[in-house]
Design a protein that fits this description.
By secondary structure, the chain is α/β, with parallel strands linked by helices. The strands form two sheets. Strands 5-4-3-6-7-9-8 form a seven-stranded mixed sheet, with helices on both faces. α8 runs parallel beside α9.
């Protein structure tokens, strides 16, 4: 039996990858497959093209996606980790008694990954936002080619310093927000981190094993600054969303989030741990609704 990767119990990728199954569904992956020193068929995870083909194969094999094209310099999301977030949010919504899900994806990117996974796995409706028109153009192509135009709406955030302002209207009501915030303070910091990661992978070429444009990877002040902008703006739209949620990579940012949210009037705050292989991360979720409002929402 293969070792579990510590993913959510419903995650189809808990036992790793079946390369033969993936190659059958997506033959383009075959050119990147080789047998390593342990006799295992695998790919070069330091090669960004191979990584993108692997994730495309996962979408084709397990999620009924038949088109997933976007530029090589855009962030390529790892499917097992992204769908893990979706599964944990599904648990949160089920416990809250919310059945018809209308989700808001903040910073959907060119891959539109959370909306397509959320709809394919759970049938959720989505609005997906981004500050880049170019990314939204590719997201639109993915939506249209996978016949999800009635399920996923795209919205352009014209002011890159804002998250909800100028984007939400008074009639919007969302069950949950989903967000994978930019992690780095700058693109140069991201490149330095990549150099260290390559050393760990023993990739002497210093080739980037990830993609990502500057706005996808960095935000002035890093993850902490983005998160606190997110928290403050969420408090200005308290009744328009049941659960606000975000991934938080740096554990040390969680306590300051709790302190800020308590001051902003959050009624419930939760931390949901996530384990993805050797990586430990977490989701922080909060709501401003009182008990009566929560019951009315889910009734």
């Amino acid at each position: 039996m293969k070792k579990s990767l510590g993913l959510h119990p419903r995650n189809k990728h808990r036992s790793g990858y079946d390369i033969d199954v993936l190659c059958k569904s997506y033959p383009q992956l075959k050119t990147h497959v080789f047998i390593n020193s342990y006799g295992t068929r695998t790919i070069d995870f330091a090669n960004p093209k191979a990584v993108k083909e692997l994730n495309t194969a996962l979408l084709f094999s397990y999620y009924g996606i038949n088109f997933w094209e976007f530029p090589a310099n855009n962030l390529c999301p790892p499917i097992p980790g992204r769908v893990d977030y979706i599964h944990y949010i599904a648990d949160l919504l089920e416990k809250s008694g919310i059945k018809e899900i209308n989700a808001l994806d903040i910073g959907t990117g060119a891959s539109c990954i959370y909306p397509i996974l959320g709809h394919k796995v759970y049938g959720w409706q989505f609005a997906a936002t981004d500050i880049e028109n170019e990314s939204l153009k590719y997201a639109h192509q993915i939506i249209v080619n996978n016949k999800m135009s009635n399920e996923i709406e795209l919205r352009h955030q014209k002011d890159k310093t804002q998250i909800f302002k100028g984007l939400l209207n008074e009639n919007d009501r969302f069950s949950v927000t989903i967000c994978n915030p930019p992690f780095y303070n700058s693109l140069s910091e991201a490149k330095q981190q990549n150099t260290r990661k390559n050393r760990g992978l023993k990739n002497d070429s210093n080739q980037r094993n990830f993609a990502g444009k500057e706005n996808e990877l960095s935000y002035k002040g890093g993850e902490k600054a983005f998160l606190h902008t997110y928290l403050f703006e969420s408090s200005q739209f308290k009744k328009q969303c049941f659960w606000y949620t975000t991934l938080v990579s740096k554990k040390e940012n969680v306590q300051s989030m709790y302190t800020s949210l308590e001051k902003l009037g959050a009624t419930t705050i939760k931390t949901i741990p996530m384990e993805q292989g050797n990586k430990v991360t977490r989701i922080v979720a909060w709501t401003f609704l009182n008990e009566k409002e929560q019951q009315e929402w889910s009734s």
